[in-house]
Amino acid sequence: ETGVTQTPRHLVMGMTNKKSLKCEQHLGHNAMYWYKQSAKKPLELMFVYSLEERVENNSVPSRFSPECPNSSHLFLHLHTLQPEDSALYLCASSRGDSTGELFFGEGSRLTVL
Amino acid sequence: AQSVTQPDIHITVSEGASLELRCNYSYGATPYLFWYVQSPGQGLQLLLKYFSGDTLVQGIKGFEAEFKRSQSSFNLRKPSVHWSDAAEYFCAVGAPDYGQNFVFGPGTRLSVLP
Fold it and tell me: Which of A64, B68, B95, B112 has the fewest C-beta atoms under 10 angstroms from its C-beta?
């Protein structure tokens, strides 16, 4: 298996549920990212991990909790979400510098009821 | 702070026609510039990128883009559009002092008429 894989592809959850999104990259990259893509809004960077350390956190609400146990895996733990959190959550990886292109997964479509 | 604008929200062209998608950025120096494409239900895929050197860069799927420093632009072009090019196109900017924080434009949706 190659590239960036995200699971689940679709998730429906209630506001009181706890769920997690998973991302795995097989590219040997050093950096992994979570982006949020909402309708009619630019792609929003949520978190960046470089060599398993968080280097960017763009003022994301604490109901989103990232975890990067190693350079190949990235999780986004979700709890007590709001309906406005419904969006496509994209994971990406890169070499870890600003010249390196991002390789994206296909995304996890989240619906919060 | 760096920013990216894509003035056209939606563009419709006929198959076989030429295409130009606009991208303007705001940054004090020359940034790193990227164009990505997103097909429905898919993640983003890199079309091409510019770091330095020749200002006309070639990408995949027959796309090219030209960096114009005087206009702070990085427009994407294709001489003859195919129906499979219908997708969302995103311009993005990176910079050395911004680390791994890439800034994306809002996207331009391309529709292709048969």
Answer: B68
Which stretches in chain B have pLDDT values below 50? none
Q: For an interface test with B, which of A27, A38, A102 has the most B Cβ atoms less than 10 Å from its Cβ?
A: A102
DSSP assignment of B16-75: TS-EEE--EEE-SS--EEEEEEE-TTS-EEEEEEE-SS-SEEE-GGG-EEEEEGGGTEEE
A107 contacts chain B (CB < 8 A): yes
In this structure, what token pair is assigned to residue A1? 């298996």
Whether B107 contacts chain A with CB within 8 A: yes
**What is the C-alpha separation between A42 and A24, in angstroms, rounded?**
24
Number of H helices, E strands in chain A: 0, 11
Sites in chain A below the pLDDT cut of 50: none
Residue B27 with chain A: CB contacts under 8 Å: none
- Among chain B residues, the shortest Cα distance to A39 is held by B106
Distance CA B1, CA B101 (A): 11
